[in-house]
Amino acid sequence: METSRQYPDLTLDPIRMGLTVVQQLVDSLAVEVKRPLATIVTSAQAGMLWLERPDLDGQRLNRLVDTILRSASQATAMIERYRSVTDIREAVPGLFDMNDIVREAVLDLTQDVSANRVGVIEFLAPDLPHVRGYDRHFRLILSNLLANSIQALATSETKQRRIEVATQVDSAGVSVEVRDNGGGFGGHHGFAFEALYSTKPAALGMGLTICRTILTIYGGTIEAGDNADGGGWVRFTIPAYVAVQAASEAA
């Protein structure tokens, strides 16, 4: 493996400035999305009070309103998770095994995987070198890629819905690939990382854009494509933090 490659110094001001750009982007989205969510919550709460009137039998409608409340709360929690991921003011970069990040991300999405009847297969290379950074960033990237695959499969007519997650290491660093047998990119994978572009009608098209921005700050890369037999794949690579680099920094 190549060991002379300079690993980004995550304590430098330009790096934090780059992450600030990401934070501003997410904050902007949060403001825009939270306004209608607040209206939904307020309206639903008022509706529940109205349904408590003794002359109304509103059990069915009450359950519907409760669903609206829970959905809105989940959306708000998701937005806050994005904001916390990009806020590193109190965080300290560390060394992480990407296999552990993959396992945690898959575990976090267990409910969605089960609800959409998706099988997840892990092909994790042994003895991966560590990557250095903020684990919340790595988890966000993996969660985005897995969630995209789950959503693609949820609307697919594929009978055996499958996601494969693989890790490997080469001269470029540590790579993670997420592959599914859903609808794929339809030949438009060149636009996959453009802001506001999405193959899903109801999506904002910001997830992969944010992933690319974070990876660029780490000196990493990300690419996507369509499988020959259907579905799509996304692969990202981060420089490995090897002992030689750690020793040179200590000196």
From TrEMBL:
Residue stretches in coiled coil: none
Which top EC class applies here? Answer: transferase
Q: Does the keyword rRNA-binding apply?
A: no
Ribosomal protein among the record's keywords? no
Query: Which SMART domains does the entry mention?
Result: HATPase_c, HisKA
What PROSITE patterns does this protein map onto? HIS_KIN
What the entry lists under InterPro entries is as follows:
HATPase_C_sf, HATPase_dom, His_kinase_dom, HisK_dim/P_dom, Histidine_kinase_KdpD
* Enzyme Commission numbers on file: 2.7.13.3
Instruction: Please provide the record's keywords in A-Z order.
Output: Kinase, Transferase
Q: Which GO terms describe its cellular component?
A: plasma membrane
Listed GO MF terms: phosphorelay sensor kinase activity
Q: What sequence ranges are listed for the domain Histidine kinase?
A: 28-242
Q: Which Pfam families match?
A: HATPase_c (PF02518)
What this protein catalyses is: ATP + protein L-histidine = ADP + protein N-phospho-L-histidine
Official protein name in the record: histidine kinase
What is the scientific name of the source organism? Answer: Sphingomonas crocodyli
